[in-house]
Amino acid sequence: MIFTTQMTELFAVVLGKDREQVTEALLREGVLQFLSISELDTQGKDNLSTLKPDVSETEISDLRKRIEGILHTIGIIPAAPQETDLNNRIAINIEKENQRLNVIDGERESIRERQRTIQQEILKLEDIRRQVDLYGVDLADITLPTRQSLISMQSGKLPASNVKQLEESLKNLPAMHITLGQQSSEVFHLLLHMKRDSQQINRILASVGWTKVQLPSEQMSAQKDMVKEVTEKIKTLTDEQKKLQSQADNLVKKDEQRLRELWIDLRINELCSRIQTHFKSSSRTVLFAGWLPSSKKEKLEKTITRASEGRCYLEWHDAGSKDVIGEEVPVQFNNPGILAPFQMLVSNFAIPKYGTIDPTPFVMPIYLCMFGLMFADVGQGLVLVLLGLLGIGRFRKNQEKRGLLQLFWLLIWCGSGSILFGALFGSYFGLPLFKPLWFDYHGIISGHVAVSDNSMINDVSDILALTIYFGVSVIILGLLFNWINIIRTGSWMELVFSKGGIMGGWIYGGGIYIVFYMIQHNYKEYPPAMTLFLLAGLPALLLFIKEPYHYFSHKKEHPEKPSKIIFAFLNFIMEWLVELLEIFSGYLSNTLSFMRVAGLGIAHVCLMISFFTLADMTSGIFRILILILGNILVIGLEGLSAAIQALRLNYYEFFTKFFHGTGKLHTPISLNSKL
Question: For position 489, what pLDDT does the model report?
Answer without folding.
Answer: 85
